Amino acid sequence: TYLDPIDPNLAGYMPGSLAAVDADGNRVAMITYGMIGIEMINSNGQPLQIRPDFTAHISFPIPDAQMAHAPEEMPLWYFHESTGVWYEEATATKNGNTYTAEVSHFSFWNCDIPVPYITLEGTLNCEDHAMSALNILLTRPNGSSASGNTNVYGYFSGIVPANEPLIMTVFSQSCGFENSLYTTTIGPFAADTDLGQIVMDCISPVQSPVITGTVVDCNDIPMEGIAVIYQAPNAIPHYVFTNSEGIFTITAYCLESGSVSYTLIDMDNLLEGISDEVVIVAGIPEYDLGALSFCEATALSNFLTYEEGEYNFLFPFVQVGDSSICGNLLGRLDLSQPYAYMLEMKFELIDTPGSTGPCAGSYLMYILPDNTTYTAEMEIFEMNITELVFSGGSYSLFSGTYTGTVSVTIGTPNNLITSYDTQVSGSFHFEQ
Q: 108-115 and 135-139 as β-strands: parallel, antiparallel, unpaired?
């Protein structure tokens, strides 16, 4: 899998951030010139690696926009899934319009120039609500760039080059980069910086309707913390939470007409409330749904949970697939940041209810509210499948529980806070 370094949406596809450790053990940031992910398995679904003392030849195309300042050689880095950090290991050489290298193992590889860095953070707001699921592109004076996303609270954080001015551009995938919502010049920064609250103009270059509503219980009492998962036409699903007054706000970026579907979910109790849609009409900018009752909620139809001590995660976007030998149970929370909140469990293929064990490569990654990263390698677990329908090479029903042992790491690219082995359990239900 090749990842284009000039894609404004790169942060949503790549693993981890651009935090790295160089050959001398120093923490650095990186300016990427392209990434490639390499994974091979045998007929039993087990991962393959290159034999000791052998290497494989890989190559990366150099985008036209980077050709003028592409150096003749640069370090090559691999991604370590358990730490979420890139490590320098080899060298890539420029040959015409490509970089080539010899590597000793299969993984994600990245052509990058290391630079000193600082951590930059901030929050985007529009009047009184957070600007979630937006792309933030930071461009250096030489034209290279890196991107990230705001979370459900409008918060963003990441590493950026130190001592350089940066052009900050905020846009939505629905609007496209050409219809940016906010642009400014920031920096240079010599130390870690919190930009604080950035208040944006609520008016976008193209109509962006605002949808509001209030979620209440059976006694008409507002409910805080209810997730509202919504999806506009030709866009990935996003979610927002109700505030202390039960109110939620959705901005349908650059949608002139069409329907926005939404579903209310109580993540703590695995309950699903109203599912409906809002019909957007050209020229009408605001839609108030009024009070939405959660009184007749039912069991959540698709979910994957992870329970480990104080860390309990719910993933409402679930997929189940197979590769002839191994099955794959994949849960995500935020599809705009697919690698930031995900649990992937690879299991020995099963086509009737019962127990099954793991295939290699199961892991979890979750960005905690304090912006530290929780990762877990799951090599030992047992699935107990209570409901299963498998036909035509795919699952249409897959439900059950699991228990196992995980290796947990919590920290940031700059600071490992703790690591430990512990027990984990959870449940899942997938139906289509």
A: unpaired
